[in-house]
Amino acid sequence: MKFLFSVMIVIYHGKNLATGGPILFPGGSAAVEFFFLVSGVLMARTASKTEIQGNLGKDTFAFMKHKISGLMPNYYVAFVIAFIVSHLGATSLFLLFKDAIYSVWELLLVTGVGLRPIDGLANGAVWYLSAMLLAMLVIWPIMRKCKDLFFYWIAPIAVLLIMGITYQNWSRFGAPSLWTGVCFRGTIRAFMGILLGCIAYKVAEFIKRQEFTLLSKSFFSLVELVGYMTVFVICMVRHRGTTDWAIVAILAVCVTITFSDVTVWADRFRHPVFNHLGVFSYSLYLGHGYWSNALADLLPKLTYWQRMPIYLLISFATGLFIHFTSIGLRRLWAAKGTQITNMFIR
User: What global pTM score does this model have?
Assistant: First the structure.
């Protein structure tokens, strides 16, 4: 599902190639809500199954360090490519140098606090990562300090309040770069999705403990399948709007069922190929956004439908390059990391 939703996002960002007329997956940015939910589930699982390391501050630091290290070196490999591609038409070395200096906030993964406009990022898609990390930095220590209070009271109330506030003030979930006066819209979406994912984890764990009949498992399977398909169909035919909140609710149900392992096909998806697709989805996500902007300028005479296959091919190729280059860099560090460190620190 991570792979499929990543593909949806790639196709959605191809809207920059549009020359008029219909586009594919006009509501595809809803896939981000899926990733926030999954991030919440995984964070809650880690918090529930590990002991606090030292005091709460050190424990939070250890979790964030682990989380950020898991994003590397893919993130920086993608940044280099994004910076080059987004400056293909640069005519001033001064402006190029200026953009490189301002990219320090992007390199530090803190753009979500508002230190730079999201629209000015070399790799605009990474707003999601900054928003996710910021939300986790706040949620993690609360969840670790008071687990039961968090899962049974704080998280449900916070989710309901955020959903109500956003529904009354927004017409849709998009526009993550809009400033609310405190943070970006995207950051609020991160808090809502991750908190909802934490609740989904708790429900999934309850479901796991039950002994269901084949009929019950078939029902769960049907709900999961129809739910995911419904989201894909809505995103395929509709632009984002008031249905966004319904999509979040449907995704929450589907993600809960997926992590509860009660479907009739759960064991079939344990094959390594699905794990590889899930891992690759991250590099694919990092390797596409800047190409949609660049190809619109590089291929001005082609239509949207002519540009799209080229865009998809280049995006997948870039994703594969990021993926395998990062694997190589991790292996290099595993073999030579101590030697490299000793060059600077003894």
Answer: 0.93
